[in-house]
């Protein structure tokens, strides 16, 4: 893909400065906030903001805002994305400055992961109670069931299984030969195990593991569910790609999360990293992962005008169903996408 000379020069000038090159090198590992970059690079927020402004104006980075936070990610598509990709491909992985930045990035992410782990441990016993503040579980589960419809699946993986509720819904079918729940929290897995035993759900395997590197072979599952997990993650797009890698040909990925919102207390009180996701953002992740969106829906809050923000009833739940493209059914009608369908 060709670039006009002035556009190319603008992009190259943007990365042709030490701090901006360090920023771009960090962003290739996932989106970050100004605060993240300030901590990692040890520079003032105004200075980092100026550098990001120059990079954004040159088309090297993209910016999107969520509530009071702004996230920056590296432009990876188009001619500028290819150009910057070539620049980064020729950087020295062992450069001491860039290597130290990556070490500090790993420390920052580990610190956030530890904080989230502490939160999950603290709320494990009342996790379903906390969730009930944010959505009507029965309504969401009915929508999930309807979206899957007559989907035939024998192997199921629930990424970030939490209390194991999704395994109760989708793993207890007699046709299912393997149902696995993966979670990074020992405390949450203990709750899931107790819930599954209480519900007499058998043949379920609970594993501790990381959604970024799930310990399973590619093409292992017919159905993968990511239910109210992505908003806790630093790099949700990466988790989607890993889930797609685990799908069998024509397998299905079902994602449930929140639509964009401005309830900042979910960050401070409930360890949310992201305040929901726009449909086009998740659609792009799924497409990049080689999946085709076959249905999407939103579930509006029942009491959206409630003055009590702590009730969580202002949250809208979004659902996406995507299919592995390798063996799509060409006899089916055109993909049906239901957007902004309100379920009450």
Task: Write up this protein.
This protein is an alpha/beta fold. The chain folds into two domains: 5-91, Arc Repressor Mutant, subunit A, CATH 1.10.10.10; 126-327, Rossmann fold. The protein is 42% helix and 19% strand. A seven-stranded mixed β-sheet has the order 6-5-4-7-8-10-9, sandwiched between helices. The longest helix has 28 residues, at 96-123. Residues 304-313 and 328-344 have low confidence and may be disordered.
Strand order in the sheet with the most strands: 6-5-4-7-8-10-9
User: Rounded to an integer, what's the Rg over CA atoms?
Assistant: 21 Å
**What are the secondary-structure elements, in order, as H or E?**
HHEHHEEHHHHEHEHEEHEHHEE
Stretches where pLDDT falls below 50 for ≥5 residues? Answer: 304-313, 328-344
Overall tally of domains: 2
Mean pLDDT metric: 83
SS-derived structural category: alpha/beta
Strand runs, count: 10
CATH arch. level architecture of the largest domain: 3-Layer(aba) Sandwich
The end-to-end distance, rounded to whole angstroms, is 48 Å
Count the DSSP helices.
13
> Strand-residue fraction?
15-25%
Q: What is the C-level CATH assignment of the largest domain? A: Alpha Beta
